[in-house]
Amino acid sequence: MSTIFxxxxxxxxxxxxxxxxxNNVVYVKWxxxxxxxHIEQLGLGVEQYLELKHAMVAVEHHMNYxxxxxxxxxxxxxxxxxxxxxxxxxxxYAFFRPLDQSLLFVGxxxxxxxxxxxxxxxxxxxxxxxxxxxxxxxxxxxxxTQDYSLSAV
Length: 153
What we know:
Elements: E1 5-10, H1 24-41, H2 46-52, E2 54-65, E3 74-84, E4 88-97, E5 102-115, H3 126-131
Antiparallel strand pairs: 1-3, 2-5, 3-4, 4-5
């Protein structure tokens, strides 16, 4: 069973667009950053992908921007796995600003397993299915009173 995972960050000047808030492209980067940190914590990160000769790649994103994020905002990037089948894992995201208790963003990604050498689809190996289990149904990933972080701002 995998866990909910939090990564605490601060929005920087480089994240801000011409309208004065975090650019939408940055949210995709943050999705990647928190997913990568989570898989590393689960013990099945990039190094293990290379050893196994297969990896998970994003094939579909859905994103909902709820509130603007600004320079120097401290935010929690939260992710968790919510489904898994023979070919795909499904990851959810929620980005939260504790200062005003605002949910800034929610999204999800469909990840496919591929052979690194060919890029062709591959069934998830037992190593992947064991590491990428969905979270328990008793957990509420939108309850930000719970801290699932390993790192601080």
